[in-house]
Design goal:
Strand content: 25-35%
CATH class of the largest domain: Alpha Beta
CATH superfamily of the largest domain: Translation initiation factor 3 (IF-3), C-terminal domain
Number of helices: 4
Shape: rod-shaped
Number of strands: 8
Largest sheet: 4 strands, mixed
Helix content: 25-40%
CATH architecture of the largest domain: 2-Layer Sandwich
Strand order of the largest sheet: 2-1-4-3
Radius of gyration: 30 Å
Length: about 160
């Protein structure tokens, strides 16, 4: 097998017994890195320390990753202009913070006949937020709700 690593005297091809003896002498572990290579590649290292470092790296990566939240904004089919602008301002803040926005229009009772009015409202909402986010999903009717998803635009 081919032996690699920093703590061995000479890198090269060793018989298995000699590699194991060398690992025992250094009080470390013999770890097979690439079993499919010809000859297989092994490394002498402290395996517990290696596992600890891998867990620490994974933890660090998880800590640095950003969690995307979905904020929901609800409209009625006959939402007034002032209410629309108020909710638009909130959506801008959410998108600037990096959150996704789920805009939905709720139809109560017989107001479902105004579904095209709700669609116009959502399309106008997306158009107003064009510089902050882009429509990830166009308005679609699900039961008595019309839903549209907006995701933030990447900052340069």
């Amino acid at each position: 097998m081919r032996l690699v690593g920093e703590n061995i005297p000479e890198q090269g091809i060793y018989p298995i017994a000699k590699a194991i003896a060398l690992a025992d002498e250094l009080e470390l572990d013999l770890v097979e890195i690439s079993p499919k290579a010809d000859p297989p590649v092994c490394k002498i290292l402290d395996y517990q320390k290696y596992l600890y470092q891998q867990r620490r790296k994974a933890k660090e990566m998880k800590k640095n990753s950003t969690k995307v939240e979905i904020k929901e904004i609800r409209f009625g089919p006959n939402t007034d202009e002032h209410d629309f602008n108020f909710k638009l301002k909130h959506a801008q803040e959410f998108l600037q913070e990096g959150d996704k926005v789920k805009a939905s229009v709720f139809f109560k009772g017989r107001s479902i006949v105004y579904s095209e009015q709700g669609e116009k409202l959502l399309l106008r909402f997306a158009l107003e937020l064009e510089e902050y986010g882009r429509a990830e999903q166009m308005p679609k009717l699900e039961g008595k709700r019309m839903i549209m998803m907006l995701s933030p635009v990447k900052k340069k």
